[in-house]
Amino acid sequence: MNIKVIGGVYREYCAWPKHINLLGSAGRAALCLVQLSKQTSVELHSSFSENDVKPLTEKFAFTSCKIVNSPAEQTTEFFYDHPLATPSIYPNAAHFTELPVFRVTDYENDNVLLFGMYEKTPVVSAKNVIYDPQNTHCPRLYSEKGAKAERLIYVLNRTELTLLFNRFNAEQITNLEIMASWLLKQEDAYAIVVKCGSKGAFAYLADGTSERIPAYQTQVVSPIGSGDSFVAAFAHYSLARDMDVFEATRLASIATAFYVQKGTMTVDTNLVSFAETLTPHKFDTKVERKRVYLAGPFFNMGQMWLINQCKACLEEAGLDVFSPYHELGIGPAEVVAPEDVKAIEECDIVYALFDDHDPGTLFEIGYAIKANKPVVIYSEKSSDEHLKMYEGTGCLIERDFATSIYRVAWM
Which of 17, 74, 216, 334 has the fewest Cβ atoms surrounding its Cβ within 10 A? Predict the structure, then answer.
């Protein structure tokens, strides 16, 4: 089986925890594909600096991947404050009203995994195409530049699907099934797979059938590139293993769990035993959004920044957040305290920032424990002795920020 992977190769910097990588969406997907099966030959088509050809080639040493580069002046760089942050991107292509076209030779009888690019618009026609728009600002339809496929499958996240729908429809809606149905008809697609983060994925076929596939809970979550690994695994099971869309999506979810826990991919036969260690997230259809009480100090710039980051990440995970800083601010005790206590009593989960040992936060944790509320504590630097009473009374303690957010979303 030969698969052409087309899209961006980018340099990725994460400030905390510190991490530097040269992969990007297409580079990561190509690497995952050759790791999943040695029998799959991969051609990676991208456009990046010639200075990065050697380090990228070294990543694919002893694999069946061929790298085809259309040299660019420089490799696009993504800068993350933390793994769940919205990255800053350089050079910034947002000022372009129309991105330059990255046209790849058409592959009439071939299998293509195509990613949208930040700095260009890739265009290719092929027999079988799996397409990820890979753009949360202005995603493009596969067909917009005249590309055609005999069998087209979209794999995209909910934000991208919503943006595409809203571009072409006057009525703004949020119903996933309606939006997926529209895209299936608009693009004459065979299937649509919608990635929904901690909630898993939803697969829709042109024949009207659909299925929800769960995300699998892991001990650690390293989310940068998780979507790329999902699409790569889906392509592997759909194209190389010739599985139906629902089974390919389920196995891709398991493969992604391996990736976010281990930071790499593995041969697909190893995923069988790994799957036995996983717990699928049970999505409660009766409760659309759980309510989280965000406990933490906000008395200097660093504390306020962290509170803001936590609120944004929890909301992005599909949770409603009560933040004393945002809801009440700094006020007199007779006003703030009763409102905070009431909010704890009404919440589903308490998420607490522990490391400053703020008296108000410690009180909120204790009150939540007494009220039988589940508590997730994010603590990087506090000692086990500091955390002993909280661990002993059932609080879930996480030392990694991204993992702590996912832990809340999975509760």
Answer: 334
Question: DSSP letter at 87?
Answer: P
For the entire predicted model, the pTM comes to 0.95
Q: Who contacts 71 (Cβ-Cβ below 8 Å, separation ≥6)? A: 47, 48, 49, 50
pLDDT per residue as tens digits for the range 110-143:
999 999 999 999 999 999 999 999 988 889 999 9
Helices (H) and strands (E) in the chain, counts: 13, 22
Is the Cβ–Cβ distance between 34 and 64 less than 8 Å? Answer: yes
Helix segments in 65-194, DSSP class H = 158-168, 176-187
What residues make up the domain containing 315? Answer: 291-409
DSSP state of 237: I
In angstroms, rounded to a whole number, what is the distance separating the alpha carbons of residues 158 and 317?
Answer: 12
Distance CA 229, CA 264 (A): 9
Reported as a single tens digit per residue, the pLDDT across 6-50 is 999 999 999 999 999 999 999 999 999 999 999 999 999 999 999
237, 261, 280 - which closes a domain? 280
197/304 same-domain check = no
Say if residue 212 is in the same domain as residue 360.
no
Of the three residues 247, 280, 313, the one that is the final residue of a domain is 280
Q: Does 128 lie in the same domain as 234?
A: yes
For residue 367, give the H/E element and its range.
helix 359-370
DSSP 67: E
Sequence-ordered list of residues with C-beta below 8 angstroms from that of 269, at least 6 positions apart, any chain: none
Residues 140 and 267 in one domain: yes
Based on the fold, state whether residues 263 and 130 are members of the same structural domain.
yes
Same-domain status, 299 and 255: no
Our count of domains for the chain comes to 2
